[in-house]
Write a structure and sequence with these properties.
Helices cover 46% and strands 2% of the residues. The protein is globular, with a radius of gyration of 33 Å. About 5% of the residues have low confidence. The longest helix has 26 residues. A two-stranded antiparallel ribbon has the order 1-2. The chain is mainly α. The protein contains 33 helices and four strands.
Length: 861
Amino acid sequence: MRGGLTFTAPNCVFRALLPVSLAVFGVLGLAVPSQTPQSPSQVGFADVQSLFKARCIGCHGAASPSGGLALDSFEGVMRGGATGPAVVAGKPDASLLIQRVKGTDGKPQMPLGFAPLGATEIATLERWIAAGCPNQVAAGPQHWAYVAPVRPSLPPVKTPGWVRNPIDAFVLARLEREGLKTSPETDRATLIRRVTLDLTGLPPTLAEVDAFLADASPGAYEKVVDRLLASPHYGEKMALPWLDAARYADSNGFQMEGDTYQYVWRDWVVRAMNANMPFDRFTLLQIAGDLMPGATQATPEGRDMLIATGFNRNPMLNGEGGAIAEEQRNVLLFDRVDTTSTTWLGITMACARCHDHKYDPFKQRDYYKLLAYFNNVPESGVPEGGVPYSIAKPWIYAGTPEQMRRLHALEAQSAAAANLAAWMERAPETRRAEAEWLSGASSDNGLPEEIRNVLAVKDRSPEQAKKLHAYFMDHGLAGESKARWEKAKALKAELAALKAALPRPMVMSDQQPRVTHIYSRGDYTSPMDEVACGTPEPLPPAKGDVPPNRLGLARWIVSRDNPLTARVQVNRYWQTFFGHGLVRTPENFGVQGEPPTHPELLDWLAVEFMESGWDVKAMHRLIVTSATYCQSSKLRPDLQQRDPSNALLARGARFRLPAMLLRDEALAASGLIDLRMGGKPVYPYQPTGIWDGLGITDERDFRYPQSKGADLYRRSLYTFWRRTAAPGNMFDAASRQVCTVRMSQTSTPLHALTTLNDTTWVEAGRALAQRVMLAEKDRQKRLALAFRLVCARTPDAQEMAVLNRGVQRGLDYYRAHPDEAAHYLSQGDSVRDSRLAAPEHAAYAAVCLSILNLDEALTKE
């Protein structure tokens, strides 16, 4: 915090408050931001039925209705129970149902033994009763997420001067209804640091900060945004949440932790993000790129279409000895249905694997109709190869453009040479030469003993004859025949060596048609009815000529008639920049998920996204150039009371950066970072013995193979991700074992233990100290430079005094303990400049490590 240099320490848990559901706020009696008012006519029985299913059916279902009250049908609600009618149409206050859920009749508040209904849920019941209890079941699902978004009109606001784009109009209108004010724009140094971290995952350089601070033109900030959107590091930053959703890792995930080549798919994602590939094509390629025209290994473009399908080849692969292949194949199918549903649709289809969904209108049949789309992949269910690499067919070769050109050339040459070699082996002159060689070979003492022994056998077996023939072809030919044979052998060997060196990413294919059945309780050994592929019946069906395969599924997912995809994606983009989505349950847009805090804004953004041609960068630009985004993140007293989790967006977002970005920030500020892009994963510093517990002793030394040189300082995106022993300094990242779309925010003691003690941060502090010491001679200038490199702003007088005292204490200590200074400066592999006196360097290194651990440094302000 400014003016006090708040340092992160293990006991600093005041920032550990996570977003809490609005329903919980209601239970605790805290201020609950009300939902956008709906007219009574907008609420039908389907709305309250969803609520009943989520909160009441456990006791008040038709099978055994407690008190005779069954709430799972319109008739049951209107009939009431043993104590009389549950509702009085048009009169919420006179309805026994409302009295019981409010607990106003002196009897226990419903639901008994569970958290009371939140204010929003009770308001929904009251609006339905006030509307006369309309029964709209026949109209189909009415839950807000299952109705296609329509672009709402921009709401009028009292202070239009604050509005920069339509986002602000919706946010401001809501704040004005709540009687709250917006926050002022944050200072420019904080703003450029915020947007640079958000769009590239890196802190701004001093040159970028200075240029922005000096630019007083009206469009200065927009120019910064456009520069960042064009940066190649934009794709690296935006790939991170997609990798979490895709459960991307570099190993298969079970005890026999063979590695994979899926980093080829990871690099495709980064390239697609940087190229601003429209999201609908991004979707089509990942779900069904292999089924699209032009998908072939023969061209770079066609090969990329195949590589893109690696999204659905990222599940864990079980190669353990006791694994049942067909069981594991079905586990992969379940994973693909669940991941696709969560990533694109934001629905919990996994609940329907064993039975009809308890809360949402999806049937078990809907689940297996989706599964049928993925059931034609020619895979056995178990990987091949063990260690070091463990992959499963189908896969392709995917090297660099130069490697692939050489591969295709060698394949053509080798095929021609092989044909020639085969002809040579059958040619009469070759047979005559071999016969002559055999007749005189027995007296040749220069032959290997093994060949002499075979020659001595009169009645040779086919294997022995084959061995002699092979030896003759390799050693008995002469002249032009020998040259041709040697060329064919060399080409074959070169081709084999090249193939062995090429990455082999797994891809999708529909080359093995299968019949799909519904499984009783999800058990693959208990098939029931046969089903064909199809989309969930409660959602609008696909229109037009849609093929019954994954390509048809992908086209339906990004169709304008699908009410979910655009909403789900813009909500996740919002989460990227604000720490939480407009829907705070990004994995669940269903009945049990939280409703949107700004429903009209969500729908406006969804329609805008589709009508822009699914332009991702345009959506990101719209968000970060809004006045809403540019607000100061300081928590005012009125907001702390009314809206502590910033659901109403009356201030800028402020939350702890994830560990992967914290590591990149430390490396960038210190000057250690290596910004090369793409390629094989690397192995930066990890705690000693982190892989020792994996229990693998055969075929390969499984100790952590730490990288050397520049690879130690690559961005966190490129760190090797072993599922059974994930990177220790990235403790708050997704496990990458299952699809994860909710952003993790934490400030546990692990944060401080890592950023104060991990070799990466200790070395970064040393390198940052060396950087400023070589750049400046004056202590004040050195400290100011170090602070700016991390926080982007100049420290004030009070902060400078604290930093000065820290350096002086360090000098006093390390001059008295030179051995400890030398030990401290030995951490990390980067070379220390020996011109710097060790005690002084250690003193600055300790202060620079402290700067890297400032709350302001670890937080997106």
